[in-house]
Amino acid sequence: MLVARLKSHLIPRTSACQYGFMPQRSTEDSLYTLMQRINKKLGEKRIITLISLDIEGAFDSAWWPAIRVRLAEENCPVGLRQMMDSYLKDRSVTVRYAGEQHGLETSKGCVQGSIAGPILWNLLLDPLLKSLQARGDYCQAFADDVALVVDGSTAMEIEAKANSALEHAREWGVRNKLKFAPHKTNAMLITRKLKYDTPRLCMGGINIGMVKEIKMLGVVIDNKLTFNEHVSNVCKKAVGIHKQLSRAAKASWGLHPEVIKTIYVATVEPIVLYAASVWAPAATKISVQKQLAAVQRGIAQKLCKAYRTVSLNSALILAGILPLDLRVREAASLYEAKRGVPQPGLGDWEVERMAPAAEMPHPAEREELKLISLVDQNDVNNHSNYEVRIYTDGSKIGGGVGASLSIWRGEAEIKARKLALPKFCTVYQAELLAICVATREVKNSKANTFGIYSDSMAALQTIQNYSCLHPLAVEARDNIRTISHQGKIIALHWIKAHAGLEGNERADELAKGAAADSKRKRDYDQCPVSFVKRNIRMATLDKWNWRYTTGETASITKLFFPDAVAAYGTVRKIEFTSPVTQLMTGHGGFSEYLHRLKCKENPSCICEPGRPESIPHLIAECPQFSIQRHDTENKIGEEIKVENISKIMQNKYIRDTFLEYCKKIVKIVINRNK
Which of 197, 241, 311, 638 is deepest in the core (most CB within 10 A)? Predict the structure, then answer.
């Protein structure tokens, strides 16, 4: 409770340069903003010096008298300040060792294990960030990690600016009993100029060394902005996971592919994709793509139970995963879209963004919103003693999205409203919009008691939960608070959908009508993140498809899946065992493959000398399986020819029958060549 009130008072006043322990901010936000600043100054042909400051024992050295002064400076309510005085009063540190005990009173340090530590540290550091900004210096902080970016036309200009800023930071530290460590402070010069001097930096009379790379918040930034070292580091971590997987998953035994995929999605991808928006341009380089491919190939082979000789393209298609370099660029595009950067394919549409957490009401002003669940008509009748009842609903049908309100007084409907949304919006948005508009109606009504009924539990719980910052939910809560201040009574109800409830059925009919009417003016037109994700994923699949179809590898896999986009949805419906993978890659117990690896003298099939025993020959031509082939053709109604294989694989009604025929052939051949 105390921390919630401290945050409500302090966060709106905290410097925008602080990214640590702040709502709706992350390490990626800090790194992305930093790189945007550096790239902008590089575009202006400036010389840039990036300085990473280090505070010795930052959280353990937070001085309590300074915290008390800061609370007073920020005009914190007296009650809060007295609570904090009590919280920090009479604290001691006790050490017990070898039967002896020694205690010492303490007056510094964010209390160990305390959730108040982060907000108190931000409060203490805030004056330094604001004073550096006021001086014209660019700085950023993530908790106690402070970065300075100094730019200039010459080394002397940078030297003067940077040394002045460093001295200012040191003096602030002395006043607040915090010590900056010059020997741990790093500086790095970034420029595109061929001829330049290196500035000489010092802090407290101690020289600061220049380095070629700095690790900030888990990302290694080098002075050429190649990010080669960062890519190398994340690849090493991912390879470590792959080596552990290798012990427990082989082509014919071990972990189930679904388990491996869960490990891949939950560990490998997050390691590689961390802060993708910062280093995504590096993913276009061939050298980086090769490093990422080396990591991914082994894991993809484990996923589809393929041999180690199977190409990356084949393994990725059968595993149903995308190349890591494309995933990096996809993650970067999604991050930028959420920040409001225009994306191709969205046109003029704006991406839906959450409301600012700093503008949320004080915890004491957050009224508890009760939610009543009604399952049948009797429950509705028992909870319908309101002057006005409003039934809401949302619908997505026939490519359109609509929402509606059906307003009742007594047994009669007195008003009906249809609300239209663009076709890319979701039903969830439609349900939220309907409830939000219902609260507007209540706010402007002259009646005194109101009941709002919706069949969307998700939308109602979003409105009920103050930590959910969806713009429609925030507006609905603001309206409900205003309604309460007007002296009116409002209650939220969940009702069961399609249960024959008159008001709900009427609202459903109106919502479907609104969805079908494409000429109506849009009442809400923000793009949901799910639509943006889908757009970006389709663009990624197109790039992957071009790379797959123009590649020289995966010739056998292309017989089954000539198109990567179609394959992406199909492979999820196929259970990949070792025989199925050998069938779709051509890498297995077949004479042609075994001869290539010098495991067999002759690549020929037993049906005819000089005829290679390959997958196309075995499935579509080999006379020893003509009876099985004829029977299968009768069952599926398609002739089994090489050019028909992809067509058969796309048909979900005959695919399984065809695969059973193929698996029987593969097992016979593998056993024969064992």
Answer: 311
Whole-angstrom distance, CA of residue 391 vs CA of residue 404: 8
Q: State how far the Cα of 617 lies from the Cα of 458, in Å rounded to an integer.
A: 55
Nearest to 556 by CA among 327, 251, 306: 306
C-beta separation of 117 from 2 below 8 A: no
Q: Do β-strands 489-495 and 371-374 pair in parallel, antiparallel, or remain unpaired?
A: parallel
Q: pLDDT tens digits for 538-558?
A: 999 999 999 999 999 999 999
Tokens of 175: 């006043």
> Length of the chain, please?
674
Q: 611: how many CB neighbours lie within 10 A of its CB?
A: 16
Kindly state the tokens that stand for 391. 């039934």
Instruction: Measure Cα distances from 197 to 208, 338, 408 in Å.
Output: 16, 40, 78
What CA dihedral angle connects 445, 450, 456 and 460, to 10 degrees?
90
- Tell me whether residue 222 is exposed, middle or buried, using C-beta atoms within 10 angstroms of its C-beta: 0 to 12, 13 to 18, 19 or more: middle
Report residue 182's pLDDT band, with 50, 70 and 90 as the boundaries. confident
Residues in CB range of 454: below 8 A, 6 or more apart: 391, 392, 393, 431, 434, 435, 460, 492, 493, 494, 495
Which two structure tokens, joined as six digits, stand for 533? 């994700």
Place of tokens 């490519």: 399
Query: pTM of the entire structure?
Result: 0.90
